[in-house]
Amino acid sequence: MEIRRATTVAELLAAGHLFDAPPRAEWAEGFLAAAGHVLLIAYAAAEFPAGFVSGIEMRHPDKGVEMCLYELSVDEGHRRRGVGRALTEALAAEARARGCYGMWVGVDTDNEAALRTYRAAGAADEGVFAMLGWGFGGRAWGFEGRDVNED
């Protein structure tokens, strides 16, 4: 397995099976162009995208810069082989190299696979919190990859 930073839209589109919904070229381009955005892809034999992790630097005037692990996905056929842990560790190494003071991820408390993966990669439990959101049309949480306007 080799982990590489994605730098082209073609790489993200080729890893489309790993995303919640098919990636769109214009959104992929915007992600790659945005400062502080990172997407690492784990490649199995024959250049098959086996998983990805994305991170976003978050800056604040009194805290400095930290990395948010935004999303981790591993192809079903490559799970429980250390791919998720390796991707998480690679993102943590990237965060350290960028001078981030830490990294964090939000995880559903019943997502045992994710909790095991992040703990195996060195994350510590910082307690339970509530996540609240605002939907502004277009793409929204909880719509299983569909545009809100499709219905």
Largest sheet: 5 strands, mixed
Spans of 5+ residues with little confidence (pLDDT < 50)?
A: 143-151
Strand content bin: 25-35%
Counting DSSP H or I runs of 4 or more residues, the number of helices is: 4
Measured between the Cα atoms of the first and last residue, the distance is: 41 Å
Overall average residue pLDDT:
90
Please bin the fraction of helical residues: 25-40%
Structural class: alpha+beta
Strand order of the largest sheet: 1-2-3-4-5
Helix/strand order, N-terminal first? EHHEEEHEH
Q: Describe the oligomeric state of these chains in a short phrase.
A: single chain
Radius of gyration: 16 Å
What is the number of beta strands?
A: 5
Shape: globular
Layout of secondary structure:
Elements: E1 2-5, H1 9-14, H2 25-33, E2 37-44, E3 48-60, E4 64-74, H3 83-97, E5 103-104, H4 112-120
Parallel strand pairs: 4-5
Antiparallel strand pairs: 1-2, 2-3, 3-4
